[in-house]
Amino acid sequence: MEEKSLRITGANTSFFNKITKTITKMLIPTKIGINGMLITIKRNSLLKAYENYQKDTENYDTEELEKKYDEAYTVYLEALDKYVMDSIYKKVKNNTASEFERDALARYYEVTSLKEREYMDYKYRKQKYLIELDKESVEVSAKEKLQERYNKFYVNKMDSLYKSILKNYSIKLADTTNIYDSTKEWVYVKIFYTLEEYIQNILSLKIKIGTEEEFKDILEDYNRFEAFTVGKLDTKDNIEKNMILLGISRKLFTHSIPLIIAEQCYEKLLKDARILIQDTKMAVKRENTYNMLINLIEDYNVRLLSTKVYWESMSERDYYKKFWDKYKEISKLKETNFKEYIKQKEILFIKNDIRKIQNSKIDYSKIITYYRRKLLDYGVIRELKDDYKSAGNYKGIIKKENKVVA
Predict the structure, then answer these.
(1) Helix (H) / strand (E) containing 71
(2) Which residues contact 389 (CB under 8 A, 6 or more apart)?
(3) ∠ CA(351), CA(354), CA(357), 5° rounding?
(4) SS3 (DSSP) at 400
(5) Three-state DSSP state, 383
(6) How far apart are CA 91 and CA 94, in angstroms?
(7) Which parts of 142-258 fold into alpha helices (H)?
(8) Burial (0-12, 13-18, 19+ Cβ within 10 Å), 45
(9) Rounded to an integer, what distance in angstroms lies between the CA atom of residue 175 and that of residue 131?
(10) Rounded-to-integer distance, Cα 13 and Cα 236, Å
(11) Cβ burial, residue 231 (10 Å; 0-12/13-18/19+)
(12) How many Å apart are CA 361 and CA 343, to the nearest integer?
């Protein structure tokens, strides 16, 4: 009897398990439908609250409208979060999810994994993830008018979230304690990745729904960046792409990436470019990387240092002022003698970079030799004979107009 009872119980358990799974699968579409309706209601309330908040009129209480908008936004996010956990999670668990839904859940866990170790990053990226998820739904199922309304909210909120994310990374780079020292290289990667993500997904949409006049200051850089969105990029291409991203950030994220942080990012790219030249064996590739480095030096000096107000060293400020005056003088040649302009500009940049790196902790001896060969080719310096080299105390002594320079 006991054996019979156990067999029956086991059979019933298996049977009821099958029924439960079947019912669950039947109820999932209903659950999705309910969640979908809730999201639609919350989304409509959010868009109405956002549009009221954006109205430029004195007849409205701005603080009250902002409060209603914030409340509608919070409720909207909660509905989206519930949709992920109630619907997508259950579909994945029951093996009825689409590839999109499986990917959505994977991205959700990727974001939530940040909560314990990087709370501020988690806070902003979760909001970004949920809004992106709903935008995909709006693009697929909503009417054109609703898409237009949603896109206005979307770019506004995304602007705010990206600024917060980048500001958080900037704080980490600015931290002088040891807590982030070991991860600063990774913070640079995150900054460049976030800038690229913003330009591809948000700026492109803003340009699409806005007017060309609004973006005239960055349109040239944006078009240059687009050339790096196709094909496989090598190390040199990535450095050049990140240079363009930094240039655009000086127009879009001046507060989120303050000048002192942008300066660190430029110096990181300069270091990477110099090391790449030293490590590159093929002459053609080395020359291409060198040309990119010259452009990077110009970007760094023109876009960033020329706008720098506060200098920790007065001597550095005075040196840069002389450098800048010389650069402006050379720039006058651009219209009359372009070839000479390029030559003189390159010589100025080489001399300036040698000054910066000759006492560096990093071994830049190979690129300094490369620079000197360039100066030799341009006739700026001439190499002493071998007997003078061996008699001197300096390796590779060079001479110009009877003056010996190390």
Answers:
(1) helix 62-83
(2) 395, 396, 397
(3) 155
(4) strand
(5) strand
(6) 5
(7) 144-174, 184-198, 204-209, 219-226, 235-252
(8) middle
(9) 31
(10) 63
(11) exposed
(12) 29
Report residue 82 as tokens: 């519930």
Task: Read off the amino acid at residue 247.
Answer: G
Nearest Cα residue to 276 out of 332, 238, 330, 333: 238
Provide the residue ranges of all domains of the chain, joining segments of one domain with +: 13-142, 334-406
Rounded Cα gap, residues 251 and 217, in angstroms: 8
- Pair of tokens at residue 234: 């090598």
| Residues 296 and 239 sit within 8 Å (Cβ to Cβ) | yes
Closest CA relative to residue 160, chosen from 124, 214, 188, 135: 124
Strand partners, 116: none
Distance between CA atoms of residues 389 and 131, nearest Å: 67
Name the token pair of 354. 């040698």
Query: For each of the chain's 406 residues, which pLDDT tens digit applies?
Result: 333 333 333 344 454 344 334 434 434 344 445 567 888 999 999 999 999 998 866 666 788 899 999 999 999 999 999 888 888 888 888 888 888 888 888 888 899 999 988 999 999 999 999 999 999 889 888 789 999 999 999 999 999 999 999 999 999 998 766 554 556 889 999 999 999 999 999 999 998 887 777 888 899 999 999 999 888 899 999 999 999 999 999 999 999 999 999 999 999 999 999 999 999 999 999 999 999 999 999 999 999 999 998 998 999 999 999 999 999 999 999 999 999 999 999 999 999 999 999 989 999 999 999 999 999 999 998 765 554 344 334 344 344 443 434 4
